[in-house]
Design a protein that fits this description.
Length: about 425
């Protein structure tokens, strides 16, 4: 019996036992690996959801080093699911699938983000996907799949429109009553004269500019969405786009595509149809990697799997993205990160706050009215957030108008946010 057949025999004998172990999702025969090297030796390859260090496993969860004289190898493959179409109804819905306001055709669900104030999950996509180019009302139904893919409000409403950044078009409907009256009068004269032409009043805004085409929808149920992107998986964080960066995206129409970032800090004019255009500044331009319906897709760096942009427009020669940092800042949300990554970032934020406290504590305590300095969760608009920063305790809070410049506390110090907390006079009990 050759080595391959021997490995197959071992698999056949021990298949039931190994597959019954927690975390194991498959078993097969393959070449043994050692570090990054592939050895010329057949092994029993055990497929697991997550590869864990031996110290974190119970004895019954351990994979034996060999079975019936055949060495084993462990390969992490994640959760195995059937592939789904980007245009079908999916629950829970990942990024990359069809979505849209009930009065549009369809766009793409970008990803799940978290509201900075409440921590609640939100669906991120474009204004023209979720808010119908400014025409929607807050609370409107958002369908998955979008209407063009068969979505109907009665069955497929996955979320309600939460908020959006208004697109400032270069031309808008008129608001001037004088211009409207002039157009009506001119059209009446034209009809009397037998002309087939009409005068239309428009509001010209040639200086109007935008930074993002983005909107948020609140899921009806948090369980209806998932923190990953179809064919990409979970992103590792947020990064800066760079010239020459290799990038990927997953969208409703063209599914998984790759490209290269060619232009940064671009000022572009985008045609939104109905003779309306809008100018955007500080944009990202990549090689062509999208078609109609891909709007809303998250742009991800191939190597690091960091999110870098939000797709909103393109042509057969190029694709346009809003920088993701700008999107998150304006919409006041954060990217949903894997638990380990989120823990790392939280630890990093804590360490930054500790360093700033150590550097500026004496200076802050010397300020009038300040009675203490510490580290804690920040508050925004009266609500506690999950953001770590400095907490400066004061005897009593005063409005800025009553404070001299040297008495005013900064909103942040070296990038660490500052919260002011009134604690009254501190006395021994």
């Amino acid at each position: 019996m050759d080595d391959f057949e021997e490995a197959k025999m071992a698999k056949s004998i021990y298949k039931a036992e190994i597959l019954s172990r927690p975390n194991v999702v498959g078993l097969g025969v393959g070449y043994k690996t050692s570090g990054s090297r592939v050895l010329d030796e057949f092994s029993l390859v055990v497929l697991v959801r997550n590869k864990l260090p031996p110290v974190s496993l119970r004895p019954q969860e351990m994979i034996p080093a060999e079975v019936a004289g055949v060495r084993t190898d462990v390969l992490e493959v994640g959760v195995l699911r059937p592939f789904v179409s980007h245009t079908e109804r999916v629950r829970p819905a990942p990024g990359g699938v069809s979505i849209g306001h009930y009065e549009i055709t369809a766009g793409t669900l970008g990803c799940v983000v978290r509201d900075r104030s409440s921590g609640e999950p939100m669906i991120l996509s474009n204004n023209h996907v979720l808010a119908n180019r400014n025409a929607a009302q807050l609370g409107d139904p958002i369908l998955q799949p979008g209407p063009a893919d068969g979505g109907v409000p009665e069955r497929d409403t996955i979320a309600l429109l939460e908020r959006f950044e208004t697109i400032r078009f270069n031309e808008e409907p008129p608001t001037c009553s004088l211009a409207q009256a002039y157009a009506r009068f001119g059209n009446t004269l034209a009809r009397w004269a037998g002309s087939q032409h009409q005068v239309q009043a428009v509001q010209l805004r040639p200086q109007a500019t935008n930074q993002i085409d983005a909107a948020l929808a609140r899921p009806i149920a948090a369980a209806d969405v998932v923190d990953e992107i179809l064919e990409i998986g979970k992103v590792n964080g947020v990064g800066e786009a760079e010239l020459g960066m290799e990038v990927i995206k997953s969208g409703r129409t063209t599914a998984f595509t790759s490209g290269t970032i060619n232009v940064l800090d671009a000022t572009v004019t985008v045609n939104y149809g109905d003779e309306r255009t809008a100018t955007f500044e500080h944009q990202i331009v990549s090689s062509p990697m999208s078609q109609g319906g891909d709007s809303g897709s998250l742009l991800v760096a191939s190597e690091s799997k960091f999110a870098v942009g939000l797709l909103y427009a393109g042509s057969s020669q190029a694709t346009l993205f809003n920088p993701i940092q700008t999107v998150l800042k304006i919409l006041k949300v954060e990217l949903a990160l894997p638990a380990a990554k989120a823990l790392d970032q939280r630890q990093s934020a804590l360490e930054r706050a500790q360093a700033v406290k150590a550097a500026y504590e004496a200076e802050l305590l010397a300020m009038p009215n300040v009675v203490g300095v510490g580290i804690g969760l920040q508050h925004k608009e009266g609500r506690r957030t999950d953001e770590i920063g400095l907490v400066v305790m004061v005897d009593h809070k005063l409005p800025d108008a009553l404070l001299r410049p040297e008495e005013r506390l900064p909103d942040e110090i070296d990038g660490v946010p500052v919260d002011v907390k009134e604690v009254g006079q501190l006395r021994v009990d």
